[in-house]
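Escalated from tier 1: calcium ion holo job.
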Amino acid sequence: MRVLGRWCVRALLLAGAIQLAGCSKQQEPAAPAAPKTPYGRVDQARVIAADAEPQNWFTTGRTFGEQRFSPLEQINIDNVQQLGFAWQYDLQTERGLEATPVVVDGVLFTSSNWSKVYALDARTGRELWLFDPKVDGQWARNACCDVVNRGVAVWQGKVYVGTLDGRLIALDADNGKQLWSQDTFVDRERSYTITGAPRIAGGKVIIGNGGAEMGVRGYITAYDAESGAMAWRFYTVPGDPKLPFEHPELEAAAKTWDPNSRWEAGGGGTAWDSMAYDPQLNLLYVGTGNASPFPQSVRSPKGGDNLYLSSILAINPDTGRLAWHYQTTPGESWDYTAVQHIILTDLQIGGTTRKVLLQAPKNGFFYVLDRATGELLSAEKYVEVNWASHVDLKTGRPVPTGQGDYSKQAQRVAPGPFGGHNWHPMAFSPKTGLVYIPTLDRTAYFAADPDYKYIPRRSFNTGRAGVVEYATQVSDGAVMTRKGALKAWDPVAQREVWRVDYPWFYNGGLLATAGNLVFQGTTDGYLKAYAADTGKLAAEVLVGTSIMAAPVSYAVDGEQFISVLAGYGGAQLDEFLEGSAARKYGNAGRIVTFKLGGGKVPVPSEKDWNANIPPLPERMPADAATLQHGGLLFGQHCGVCHVLDDAPSGYPNLLRLPQGKHAIFDEIVLRGALASRGMASFANEISEVDAHAIHAFLIDKAYEARAKR
Ligand code: CA
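Tier 2 regenerated the structure:
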């Protein structure tokens, strides 16, 4: 309904049928002009022939095989030093940005946090439309790792987004108007979220979800891309075998679980990120996540592989039936998701061309599978791995060392739960034959909680105890590393060809181009370009914003662009690392686009985190037992987001709360005063007495921190 000023209403009443152009024009927001060329007309033939249209980036990974390789070469190793600023678009957020844009016929489609969707003129950054699904801020508490979204799918004039609160929404690509919306969640009492990009396969739009840390049961659902009608649903793990199985694959899977498993915790196996599609084989590949709870000794005490945790599933998109599966980590206990980026290509192996699937899941092994059959062709360590010595090619199974068994005692395990590689996309260049992996070196201690109890809607339900992941030196003398690298990996020889080391454990996703370049954004706020064949740094552009997302490349009217979402967060939002751009310049999120000869990127002004520290509040009356109770509750409910360090963070630092927030602490914690900003009410979990204990604990910690300054 349009809102008219009072004088306009009166004038309209007086004027009767006579149009008062000035009134309506002044008040009505300008409707998006109907596009000359309709937006987003992507179809199967165009995506299959994507190399004939190198100016476009049709899917989240550019093609169905998701190689994240651009055949454009106007920007190349010889001129990339001239790369500079083309345009930027302010996303008006300080939350994590993880999406890869889709670019079709000069229109850039992307998502941001809170599942907002944008269509921009890809040449200028001018906003064409913006869609806000208005996700309830309360839903943020269900997310393990920030209110992120990793992208949209564009298909036959529609744009699809999965929202944090579980809707799959189809928008009209021309104007961003909602066409249909489906509730994809089977249980709204559990902490499901959607952060991954939908994929298109066989005319269906496929969406998964996350939440295994909180205790959910994973599944993906396929909907008719045109009508939104649900086609099928595939659960990645069985439910309680006392109940009927939803589909035949679950009966087979249930045989690999202890019948007395902790079914109430959901089992996990969530498909929260990667998929790929082979239209010739008509197979959809889906990576599944970690277990719930983590320790198998707690989850499925009699052992078993616990299918289909940490697996790659090949599913016929027409029927929803499983063609094959490959499990990377049988008996998964370490948060070793296999949801990491899946790449499809053909490789010459042993003198024959093999249609392969490549993945570097969290467990530290780089896998080459035959994607028609699921046969394991090779698997080698791409980072430090101590839980398994190798993968037996005959059985296709990892050979455990025992170092990963923490059923009886705590163990240092490599990789840690962040994995050897996380969601940050890889890239594959058919020109160099190399896969580029943003790797992580981060080991961790694991201990099982012997008193594990699934508590509905508790922040974390992992069954992991005694986390000392952040220690740098631990009792057994091992150094707990926390760094990352960009590694160029030969998938045929299964060896590292070159690497670039970074002092941070997270850096951005990757883009490879035919200009012999690999692009990566970094934690310290640069867009870097490396020679794809040698790894030599070819160019770096200061952006001044930490970058996690993967760049894309596209062209408009013959001019090539590189574009990336710049903003820090996700699982890292709780800690702006030393040396990060987030710490130095703040974390205002934006899309930054580059072209040759563009000049300097506007860099935000520097930020002093120690300016304007609010004065300490008065201590609250509390005895030692109350403070201890508050600390325990803080760990259970608050510590997922808020740290107890007096250090820069993307979430409000509770040791530096201003007086005004202390005054309404109960309103915030128990009555959702800041729910619209993602700080949910915890009234169902904690009492007023509990809230006071947490408050007293925080003030006590604030005094402690201030004394150390
Ligand atoms: Ca996980």
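DSSP finds ten helices and 39 strands in the chain.
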